Amino acid sequence: MNEIIAVAKKEIMDNWRNKWIIATSAIFAILTLVISYFGSMRGVGWQDLEATIVGMINLVTLLIPIIGLMLGYASIVGEKERGSLELLLSYPVKREEILAGKFIGLSAVMALANFVGFGVAGIVIGINVKGVEWGDYFIFILASILLGMVFIAIAMLMSCAFSKRSTAMGGAIFAWFLFEMIWNMVVSGLLIAKYGFEKLMEENFVAPNWYYIASLINPIKAYSALVSLNITPVAEFIGEMPSFVNTPFNLAILLIWMVASLLLANYLFKNKDL
Amino acid sequence: MIEVNNLRKEYDGVVAVDGISFKVEKKEIFALLGPNGAGKTTTIKAILGLINYEGEIKINGMDARKSGKGIKKFIGYLPENVAFYDNLTALQILQFLAELKGVENADLMSLLKEVGLEKDANRKVGEFSKGMIQRLGFAQCLLGEPKLLILDEPTSGLDALGAYEIRKKIKELNEKGVTIFLSSHILSEVQELSDRVAIINRGKIVVLDSVEELSKKLDIQPKLRIEIQHPSSKILGLVKEIKSVKDVKLDGNVLEVTCPPSAKLAIINAVEQAGGKIIDFKTVEPTLEEIFVKVVKEDE
Question: In angstroms, rounded to a whole number, what is the distance separating the alpha carbons of residues B265 and B275?
Answer without folding.
Answer: 16
